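Same chain as my last thread, 215 residues:
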Amino acid sequence: MGKINIAIIDDEKLIREGLKIILSTYEDIDVVSTGENGFEAANICRSYDVKLILMDIRMPNCDGVEGTKLIKSLFPHVKILILTTFKDTQYIQEALKNGASGYLLKDSSYDLIYEGIKAAISGNIVIHPDVANTILSNSSTKYCEIDFYKEYGLNKKEYEIIALISDGLSNREIGEKLYLSEGTVKNYVSTILSKLGLRDRTQIVVFAYKNNLAR
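reply #2:
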């Protein structure tokens, strides 16, 4: 497998250069470019075959949320991993809602950031435990299972799959845990998206955390 081309977007030069130096030490990571805001991130995507963007969320001119919207509208295949010092629930939910593949804190170890990149590239949702706790502690809605089934017409298996998706498991991993084929899990996920009126797995994760369905 070839190297993963990534770009680092942060308005602080020391941070983006430091991340570039460290992440470049991993054999399967190639930091092809860096930038200061979401507009520059989009321009980098036009110039390079970028697979993932590691992006700060609070930046002048075009922040991480707006940058995510822009990039996903122009380059939907590009994964975006938000990296920040801010445990801001609104930013977290907005970034994920608009297509980000995950959210890590800048005080994460470099190995954790590296593993997050690998997980996002594999199609998983990456959420730092502290960020997950922030979302949960700020959630005002709590469903019991019976009420949830009734309101959304989901069965117990679909409810369980939602929780496992919010844990960051892939279809294959969910299948192994529930003794289902990967194709069957994929069908379940399609049904869940349809019943909840959601677009993709990322929105399922946001929905799960907002409604205290994550375990």
